Amino acid sequence: MTDALSAVLRADAADASETAGTVVDFLLDKPLHIALVLLVCFVVRHLLLRLIGRVAAGIASGASRLGGRGRRSALLESSPLLNERREQRAGTIASVLKSATTLVLGVAAVMSVLDTLGVSIAPFLASAGIAGVAIGFGAQALVKDFLSGFFMLAEDQYGVGDVVDLGDASGTVEAVGLRVTRLRDVEGTVWYVRNGEILRVGNKSQGWARAVLDVSVAYGSDVAHVQEVLQRLGDDLAQEEDWKELVLERPEVWGVEQMAVDGLVLRLVVKTAPMQQWAVQRELRLRIKAAFDAEGIEFPFPQRTVWLRGEEERPAPRQAPAAGRGGVDPAAAAGSHPPPPSEADVVAETAAEADPGAVRRGT
Is 159 exposed, middle or buried (0-12, 13-18, 19+ CB in 10 A)? Predict the structure, then answer.
């Protein structure tokens, strides 16, 4: 009896020891493994977020510049619109990268924890794959817009304050997002353009611009003198205190650009700071008008040559083809119609109706 009781106690002790060992293994192994996975994901996320923050700070502070030296670089650096553009670009890129990093590491940590706990993650992976395919088909336009917007910001194609031509709309960019770009045209209309629908971008304010003026003069003007006057006006503008910061290089007269119907067209070009080409063009037009009036240079007017034909040179009227010579007789073609009765015929007919005997007597 004592031996049997001892055997039972030893068996119970062995079971208790095995259970305690299992519990200890579970409490020490799996939680430790889970904690280690979470710690690694947290450390990796922290390091990646710090790296993204440094890159964004470098972009916002102007580490990525368009290039250039001298007064052009100083002018670009002092622009508040350029600073706002950099900050928005850096903030958007940093936000997208941080969100993507957190999402990827979070999903990886959850899957690793479930696998450690003995939960099969195959159904989750299959469901995630099906959901990803469904979302990809149902939100193709949205995904396309977000990807296009991200690469536009990363490549610095345009930003806040730029004057751009997006094909369907053109104007000044007011906001750039991952899905849409908002810009305002010269009439004040606000346009919202989806980034995925933008096939080409014409940026009129990136780096530098060029003011192009086509000046028309009469054919009787001295071309060499006109070129000299245009060059002098451009040089004077570039040397003035109010305009020299906007003109980056010496103006150039490229010569006769076109021989139009009413006169000659000469081209004057000026390399300017971004978005300053229109102000330079307006100022040069005013000065060109005043200088041409003072120099006696004539602007062209519409010219036409009129030829007057004399009576002796008037062509003879065209004769209708005669009948019987391969032509068609107009009278025969129109049909035979008797001439209308004359006044005498009407009087005679009336008298015959009144007195038929008088007609027979010859009255």
Answer: buried
